[in-house]
Design a protein that fits this description.
This protein is an all-beta fold and 239 residues long. Helices cover 0% and strands 53% of the residues.
């Protein structure tokens, strides 16, 4: 029988630093909740709003897979591997911190905020050589279907992760249903509703920024009650 956990948006951690307004799905920085430390290999899912011209100064990471998905606006990235550039809506960035890397992230615009999701996944192999990748995505490729954007082998878009994890995006029109088959035994699925309303397996109702974790299941049905944007993160539950 499937197991599940519901994470309502209203129960996320909240930290407003002025320049940064952050919502935490899992324990992070000063917000600690022993019941929300991780979901399998998924350690962090932060929903950040960064003020115009502000950002995260240079800081280190190691042995973590870090994914950045801008939802609105764009972000400037610099790192110790020599990568410099901007990431914007309909793009996705992935950095394997591996043996160690430093980076900074800034909102380069003085007239608008940037809203982004930053996600951390525990790695499969530790101390690998750090690596970086960034790609553009076509919104049409996720209209009423799953668009796989990250996988262990990089298929189909070339974004590979150092873990047996898969990321999917989908844009569903109202009343449309998508069925998702878990790709690897022992994996669970964390469904984060970016916008809209959705029913999952005809049992669970999700609204704007709600999340649902499911494991010990093989197939999951997602039905949009209203037009909806969905992020699925499939990860090992034991690692």
């Amino acid at each position: 029988m499937e197991k599940f956990i519901v994470h309502p948006a209203s129960e996320r951690g909240h930290a407003n630093h002025g320049w940064l307004n952050a919502r935490h799905s899992f324990s992070f920085a000063s917000w600690q909740n022993p019941d929300k430390v991780h979901f399998g290999a998924l350690r962090v899912l932060n929903d950040d709003i960064v003020a115009p011209g502000m950002g995260f100064g240079t800081h280190p990471h190691d042995n973590m897979e870090i994914i950045t998905i801008p939802l609105k606006g764009d972000l400037e990235h610099k790192d110790s591997m020599g990568n410099i550039g901007r990431i914007k809506e309909n793009e996705i960035q992935m950095m394997s911190a591996g043996s160690g890397v430093t980076h900074s992230e800034y909102n380069p615009n003085n007239d608008r905020e940037v809203n982004l999701l930053q996600i951390w996944i525990f790695p499969k192999e530790k101390n690998i050589k750090p690596r970086y990748n960034q790609i553009s995505l076509s919104p049409e490729d996720r209209k009423n279907q799953f668009q796989q954007v990250i996988s262990p082998d990089g298929n189909p878009v070339g974004m590979n992760i150092n873990q047996n994890a898969f990321f999917q995006l989908a844009s569903l029109e109202a009343s449309k249903t998508l069925n998702y088959k878990v790709q690897l035994p022992g994996n669970g699925v964390y469904a984060f509703l970016i916008s809209g309303e959705m029913k999952v397996n005809n049992n669970y109702n999700l609204y704007h920024r709600d999340a649902l974790g499911l494991w010990e299941t093989e197939n999951i049905a997602f039905t949009a009650q209203k037009d909806a944007e969905l992020l699925l993160i499939e990860v090992p539950m034991n690692f």
